[in-house]
């Protein structure tokens, strides 16, 4: 018999070490809304009860782990390409001098 384990939004946030309590739950829902890298959608049991199946989260983690080495190699290649490009000097801003101010006697 298969046992299904469901997690709340706060438990999901805790699993991924996201900020404070309210902030982290909001981040999880932001991931769902944005479809961040295939983040799994929750199972809805009622209008106010949504839970994530642990197996879905573990499958998502596995796809992220498989993709992570390729993404880090691409990021490193992009960073080195940017480093090789000659830097253009930033324009220098000079302050305009106004008329000298006189002191009151």
Please characterize this protein's 3D structure:
The mean pLDDT is 78. It is elongated and about 90 Å long. The chain has three helices and three strands. Helix content is 50%, strand content 10%. Strand 2 and strand 3 form a beta hairpin. Strands 1-3-2 form a three-stranded antiparallel β-sheet. By secondary structure, it is mostly helical. It has one domain. Helix 1 packs across helix 2.
User: What's the pLDDT, averaged over the residues?
Assistant: 78
Give the total of domains: 1
Number of distinct helices: 3
Largest sheet, described in full?
3 strands, antiparallel
Total number of strands: 3
Q: Please list the strands of the largest sheet in the order they lie side by side.
A: 1-3-2
Helix/strand order, N-terminal first = EHHEEH
Q: Rg, please? A: 26 Å
Straight-line distance between termini: 95 Å
Oligomer: single chain
What portion of residues is helical?
Answer: 40-55%
The secondary-structure class comes to mainly alpha
> Spans of 5+ residues with little confidence (pLDDT < 50)?
none
**What does the overall shape look like?**
elongated
In terms of DSSP E residues, the strand content is 5-15%
